[in-house]
Amino acid sequence: MNKISQTIPIFLLSTSLVVFLPKNCAAFSLHQESYLTLASINYPIVKSAGLSPDMDVPWSKPVRVSDPFEGGFLAVFDRNYLGGYLYNQGSKQIISLWTHKDVRVLVTVNSGLAGSFNNIGFLYNGHFDFHRHFYSAGLTYPRPDYLQLLTTKKVTKLLLKVGEQVYQLEGTNNTFAINDKLAVALKNAPYKNLNIRLMLEGGQTVDSEIGKETVKAWRIIY
C-alpha cells in the first residue's frame, strides 16, 4: 500500500504539468492561444485573399481565408461606396482586407460610361442600320448599352483614426503592415464607424470609413 500511495501523487503531478504547462510558457502568447481557441469555430471560408471590384464575399464578418499561395488565416473584408453605386459615373469603391499582419486596400474609380450608338446609322451593304449594332470587317456585332470604365488607384499611405489617435501606415502595392501597437488599438476600437484617409499616387486623397461591423470583427482578428 505504501508504494501505491507514493505513486499516485507523482502521476497526478506529472499529468497536471502536461495540461497546464503551455499557459505558463512565455512562448505561448495570448494571440496564439486565441487562434487555437478560434480554430474550432465555423467561420465562412473564402478561397482567395485577392481583391477585385466585383468580388462576392461575406462583408464585415470574420472569415477564414484559405488562399492557395498564402495558406489559411482569419480576416475581415470591408467595402464602402463614395458617390453612389460602383457603376455611377464618378463613384469610388474602397475595399479593404484586414488580417492579423496587414491591411490590403483596393480603390476603384468609375471614370465614366460610354453610351451605345442607338440613334446613329451605320452603312452596311448599301443601307443604314439604326439598331444596336456596330460594323466591322463586313460583319455586324451587337453593341452593349454601355461600357464600364473602371480604374484602380495606387495607395501610398493610409491614415486611420482610432479615438483621438491617428495612425499613419506606409506600404507597397497597397499593402500596409500592422504592428503590435496598432493591433491592440484595433482590437479595442469603439463600436462605431472609423475614419480613414487614403493618399493616392500623384497626391490625391480619398476620405472614407470603416464600417462598425468590421470594427467589431477586429476584436476577433486581433
Low-confidence stretches: 2-34, 116-136
Shape: globular
Instruction: Report the span from N to C terminus.
Output: 53 Å
Number of discrete helical segments: 4
Estimate percent helicity: 10-25%
Summed over residues and divided by their number, the pLDDT gives a mean of: 77
* Quaternary organization: single chain
Hey, roughly how much beta strand do the residues contain?
35-45%
Radius of gyration: 27 Å
Largest sheet: 7 strands, mixed
Order of helices and strands: HHEEEEEEEEEEEEEHEEH
Structural class: alpha+beta
Number of strands: 15
Structural descriptors:
4-stranded antiparallel β-sheet, globular, 23% helix, 7-stranded mixed β-sheet, 222 residues, disordered N terminus, alpha+beta
Can you walk through the features of this model?
With 222 residues, the chain is of the alpha+beta class. It is 23% helix and 42% strand. The protein contains four helices and 15 strands. Strands 1, 2, 3, 4, 5, 10 and 13 form a seven-stranded mixed β-sheet that branches. Strands 12-11-14-15 form a four-stranded antiparallel β-sheet. The chain has a two-stranded antiparallel sheet with strand order 6-7. A hairpin with a 4-residue loop joins strand 14 and strand 15. The N terminus is likely disordered.
